[in-house]
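pinning this so it doesn't scroll away 📌
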Amino acid sequence: MKGLIIKDIYCLRKQLTTYGFIIFGVAAVAIMFVLSERYGNLRETVSGMQEAGFDIAAVVKIAVMFFMLLPLVCTGQIGDLFNYDKKSSFYKTAASLPVSTEKRVLSKFLTALLFLAAGLAVDIAMAAVMSSVSDILLFSKCAGTLVSISACVMTVTSIIIMLDYAGVKPDYAPFFPIGAGFILLVIVKFRDIKSLLLNDDFGSFSAFFHKLINAFECKSYIFAIVAVAVASVSYIVSVYIAKQKKGVA
């Protein structure tokens, strides 16, 4: 199974280069933020806007977190593995290897998890450094947001892998879990969204937005539990499909 994971990582070597550039860019933005917040114009801007009653600190925090989330979102490229395997007919070779179907399927999930863990580790390290020298960012809330987003990405990626085994084209597979997540959000927050659309004022939008941010910051354990449950179910279903379709894993 280790060999399969190494093969998958090698197949994604181009994405790894892009991944490295993204991490470098995010680190550069983080350094510029720290320098500006401590010694540059950002410090004066935050103080001035807060005195005027505008929560510029929240805007800055969201902007910084957006850049920090980029390494996590890149995990979605795991779907490219299925394209590479199909083009090279690797499934025929994999079926002859002395590795069980369960382990061959598990290797795909572990590859996705390794990418995600690497991005999360980098982001957590940057959050720790930035929060230690910044008056705007709190490490606990940054870490909570990062864990929540990581859980969401893992949930989506697990479903994508399952759909790929089910025969859905890798280019279309991401739309299904993202669309389902959007519909679920509308159902759960229907009253808030309805109030937002009917009132049509910035105050309602701001309140709704802050509720979402607070959920990501303070309820990361819920997202983590859902991610583990979805990943487990997706793995079981993927193994079942792979066994039914001999030579697809």
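📌 and the second one:
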Amino acid sequence: MANGPPTPPPITTVEIEDEAKTTVAESTISQPTETADEAGATGNPPAQQTESSGNQASSTTVIQPLQPDPFESALPKISELVAASRFRELIEDIEVIDLTTHGENSPNRMLVMIPLVLAYLIRDEIALARMAMKRLPRNLTEPRITQTLGALLLAVSERDYPKVYARAEDFIDYAGKPDFPHQRLGTLIKNMIPIFVATFRERTFTLLSRGYSSITPTMASKYIGLPIQHVTKMATDRRWTYDPSTETLTPTVTRKGSKVSYAGSPPSTLRNFESIADSVSKLEA
């Protein structure tokens, strides 16, 4: 009680021991438990909260997605341009991609370089095709790709007409095999090679009409790469005349000259006439 007499201090040994036990017990009961707020103030967070924070940090770790290969990503647009015969635009797009992409030694660089070489061949820009050929990666797991394309480019450069058509067929056959390294590229090659062959034949017809006053169907078929009967029909469709008695085809000369139905560079150059002369000696040998 507040007004009662004060409790006398312990005197005996037993009283002193009892007082010590009572003090320890009261101290244990009255000691406060550290709250979360107090733990935060002292810088010692509770163990449970620390574990929760660790789980939260790990759950919010951001994994960056893999960036798509720029050469692989270009194939759909290249296919669209090929289907539309927009080869000048195709060349410009590929040149920009190759210039702005850091992947000179990437094997996937062939995915854009091979269509670039073929596009230059379609446009009869042989020097640029050779330059593009040199930019193909050298570390390909399947070197036959560059060997087959290189054989075609060499035949075109030398104006070895029979070999041009043979090498073109070789490339189509190879691109269509199940073990071709890249199926989408193989499809693109199979679409571009026939376009090249068609434009090459048209240019050759134009050169023959300007380089010959007449030619036999047998000789013309070697230049065109088709059987004689097909060559004769193609020639007459282009207003050539055929004389069965002499077995000769004669081109029709107009004031404006022969027209070419392809989007390429003009074929009437001195070098092409020289190539025809060289080819004649090869074909007649």
